Amino acid sequence: MWTVDETFDLVTAARDDAPNAVRFRRAFMLGDGTGAGKGRQSAGIILDNWLKGRRKAVWISKSYKLIEDAQRDWSALGMERLLITPLSRFAQGKPILLSEGVLFLTYATLRSDDRGEKLSRVRPPRRGLKNSKAAANGSRNVKDVQNTMDARGIPP
User: Fold this and answer.
1) pTM for the predicted model, two decimal places
2) How confident is residue 27, by pLDDT bands cut at 50, 70 and 90?
3) CA 139 to chain centre
4) What are the C-alpha distances in Å from 69 to residues 3, 37, 96?
């Protein structure tokens, strides 16, 4: 928890019960170019959180073809490659029953809307991570995040 001054320039650590304390989301951004090892860096950040007991993470990438790269980078750090699970393994609109692991999805998934009776593909992961000790979001290409928010700047 943190307290922030009225200019938002000064951020100070605060107790959980402090008045006006706020919580910030944990995130990271890698701005490196092609071949710099963003996937391995993302895997390392997720693994660091994993070892601290935060056993759920979301890895967002440009295409589902890159899941093999994510699994390669994850297993290079000594972890089981099958802990990286594609969102497509779960039926649309159904709960994602993943007690621990890394859920792999694409930017296009973040732009998907509800379809009739079926919820958007992104709603179940958000619901499942809402109150969990989620680790990290391994996101490889910032430019691909474009158009993942609605006109008000709110993610789906």
Assistant:
1) 0.65
2) low
3) 7
4) 40, 11, 23
